[in-house]
Structure formats: structure tokens, C-alpha cells
Amino acid sequence: MADAAAVELSTSIPSTVAAARGSLQGEGVHQQVEGERDAVGGDIAAKVATPSADVQPAPPSFTPLQKFCEGLSTLQLSTDMDRFLAGAKLLLRYCDNAGSEPYEPKFRRIRLSNKAYKKHLSGLPAGLECLRAVGFVDGLDAASNEPILVMGTADSELLLSCAYAAQRRLTMLRMWPEPLHACLPAACRSLDVDASGATLLDELSNELSAPHVPQLLAHSDNRKRIGTQLKHGGKRAATKLLASLAELRQNLTATHGAKGEGGGSSSSGLEHASRVKHISNNEEWYDTLLAAAGLVVVDFGATWCGPCNHVKPQFERLSSAPAYADVTFLSVDADECPTLVGNNRVDSFPTFKFFRNSAEEDLPVVGPNIDEVRDRIDELTA
């Protein structure tokens, strides 16, 4: 684990459109208000019960995006992790489809008998809360009289912001070690209240994804202390935790570098040649997709993107694995092929997409998570 700790870290939650990121604030308002009431007990209760004649307490207000984010937190706490992940991915798909094509009626209707809905969201009130937050209401299908969820006018900005929120939550769960998964809802509620808190949460996620952290959490005292800071400490405790984790990583990296100075190359021979084909224009893109017989995996990135450069050699090594000899691996640079990037609705780097028979298959992997890319390839080629 000491050697692994030396791997250079990079921002693993990619940047997206400013509007989506800027609007993702206030998720923790309700939790903070409740916490403040609990902390001071009867004094607050008495003041609320007998307000002055001149000043009436204002009830907490929640934007639709805040309601959606709170629904995600409640959903995670109310079911097992596998069902939460599947439900969050389905919510992401609903929001992304309706937000990207707001005038398409089929994306503004959900049949309650739909197989995916019944499997992943039926019977989970928090999932329905998320859908109502973005505008879905109860309705009946005119032809079959079947109960449905239907949306009138689609708020594209809200839907895409909620899709980003769901993708961000899924990304953080992949980055956080499993023993800390239960802490994520509380951390989101307390930190995602403003831009600085959201940035702090992203930086914490980056540090928690470092390869030495699981070893750190193997000690029960460390696990308990970090969990308490994430669940109950608020922004001040999170800031201290971030500084401690960063210092530990830097010390381990420096130690590893000192050990490596006296040694020779760790490579025992030539590595397998990369099978990643770089796409340089639209014609080459379509020709390659049409010619591919099986699964196609595409790395959308940019030369100026630090996380893209970090994951690029890992993607190349993955392409050379004998188990994936029938898989086609491609790379697309955002500056070289901006039209392709736009046509494929990529707004975060790196993004890995999967295609078969020239059509996109399954959800993308957003962020430099090569293990998630490998797992997705295994699922799609099984």
C-alpha cells in the first residue's frame, strides 16, 4: 500500500457547466436547521412556540434542486447500496433524457408498470420525491387508463442540474471507501450549502480516493474519528480532516520517492502496445463505429485536463489486456474534435462512453475511474 500511495492524485469529480454546479447549493439547509434546534433544546422550542407579534419565524424554503438532493440522501439511507445505485442511475437517466430533449413527450412520461421503474424505484418514497421535485405528477394514460407519472412543461435547466447532482453523488460513492458510504448523505447535507462547501466536499472526495486510505480506515479508531467528522463536524471539521489527509498523502509520497531514488527501473520489459485508436475527425469517427463488430469504448478528454492525462496510460494498458481483444478502444480530444464532443453530449472530462452497433449503450463513466470502466466493460461483454 505504501507504493500505491505515491500515485499522483487529480481532481476526480470533473467540472461541468457552471450553471449546474452553481445551482447545486443549499442541500443541507434542513439538516442544519434541525441540528440547531436539537442543540439548544427547549429555548428554541419556546421561542418558536411564542413568537413576537412583530417578527414571525420564516419557514425553511426548499428549491426543487434542494428537494431532489435531499431525496437522494433519503433514498441512500432507506435502502441497500445496490438498489440505491440502480435507482440513482435511473433517476439520472430520466432527468438527462427530459432535460436534453424537453419537447419529446416520451421523456416526460413514466409508466408505473415499466420494468426498470418497478425494479429500481417502486416502493421507495424517496425516489418518488426526487421525481416530483423535477416536475412529475400523478396521471392516467389516456389510451389504457394505466397510472403514470407525467410532466407538463419540462424545465431543462433544472432537469440537467438534477442529472448532474445524481451523477456527482454516484461519482463520490465510487471514490469514497466503502466503510464511509453511510457518511455521505450527512456530509452532503452539511457541506453542499454553498459553493465553498461544495468545493470542500469535492476536495475531500479526492483525498478519500487515495490508495492508502483503505489501510488508514482498517484501524477502528481512525474509521470512527473520520466518520464522526464527516457526519457531525460540519465545515470546520471537514476542513481540518482535508488538511490531515493531504498532509498524510504528501508524507507518504515523499517517503516513496526517497526509496525509489536508489533503485533501478521497476519495469521488467516492454509493456504491451496500446490498442487505443485516436480519432481525429468526424469521418474517421463514423467509419470506425460502423466497422466495429463488438463493443466500442471511447475516452473523451482534453490535453489540458489533468485527470485526463492521469487516466490516459491506464486506459492504454486496459486496451492491451488479452481479455479485451474483441473490444475497440478509441480516444477523442475535445479541442481537436469539438463537434464530436458536442454531438455526444459530453461536458465533463474525462468521460468514457460505450457503443455497440453505432448506438450508445448504458450510462457513461464520468471521471478518471479506470476500475469503473473495466467493470462496465466486463458487464457489457459478459
Brief overview:
The protein is of the alpha+beta class and 382 residues long.
Please state the overall shape, judged from the principal axes of the Cα atoms. Answer: globular
Q: Rg, please? A: 23 Å
Overall CATH class of the largest domain:
Mainly Alpha
CATH fold-level label of the largest domain: Methane Monooxygenase Hydroxylase, Chain G, domain 1
**Helix count from the secondary structure assignment:** 17
Number of separate domains: 3
- β-sheet strand percentage: 5-15%
Mean pLDDT: 80
Describe this structure as you would to a colleague.
This protein is α+β, with helices and mostly antiparallel strands and 382 residues long. The chain has 3 domains: 15-40 and 61-175, Methane Monooxygenase Hydroxylase, Chain G, domain 1 (Up-down Bundle), CATH 1.20.58; 191-255, no CATH class; 276-381, Glutaredoxin (3-Layer(aba) Sandwich). Helix content is 54%, strand content 10%. It has 17 helices and 9 strands. Strands 4, 5, 6, 7, 8 and 9 form a 6-stranded mixed sheet that branches. A 3-stranded antiparallel sheet has the order 1-3-2. β2 (136-140) and β3 (147-151) form a beta hairpin. α4 (64-78) runs antiparallel to α7, α9 packs antiparallel against α10 (195-208) and α12 (220-232) packs across α13. The longest helix has 27 residues, at 234-260. It is globular. The model is unreliable at 1-59 and 260-271 (pLDDT under 50).
